[in-house]
Amino acid sequence: MKRGRKPKRRWLSKLVILVFAVWSVMIMISVQGRLNTEKAKKDELAIQKTALELNIEILKDTESEDPAQSYERIAREKLGLVYPDEIIIIDKTP
């Protein structure tokens, strides 16, 4: 009679292990989803921060110089923009 009980116990233990494994995978997927959402929010906030810093710098510069010159200077220094016909020369000598 004892032989009849062992397969039931093995089946129950396998079921418990399977439920635990499925539960663990579901938790990991949930956490990964939240992590991706928070990373996207962080990236968006970093972009907004950069835009606000540029706006503050533009406001400070427009008070002291011509707005067109300040926009051009910020575009060159902060954003790395150049005119289409300009040639960029990078000096890498120490």
Q: Would you mind describing this structure in some detail?
A:
This protein has 94 residues and is mostly helical. It is 79% helix and 0% strand. The model has no long low-confidence stretch (mean pLDDT 84).
Count of helical stretches = 2
Strand content: under 5%
Distance between the termini: 87 Å
- Secondary structure: number of strands: 0
Secondary-structure element order, N to C:
HH
Based on the structure, what is the oligomeric state of the protein chains? single chain
The low-pLDDT segments are: none
Main sheet: strands, sense, barrel: none
Estimated helix fraction: over 70%
Shape: elongated
- Output mean pLDDT: 84
* Rg measurement, Å: 31 Å
Structural class: mainly alpha
Concise overview:
With 94 residues, this protein is an all-alpha fold.
Topology:
Elements: H1 2-64, H2 67-77
Features:
about 80% helix; single chain
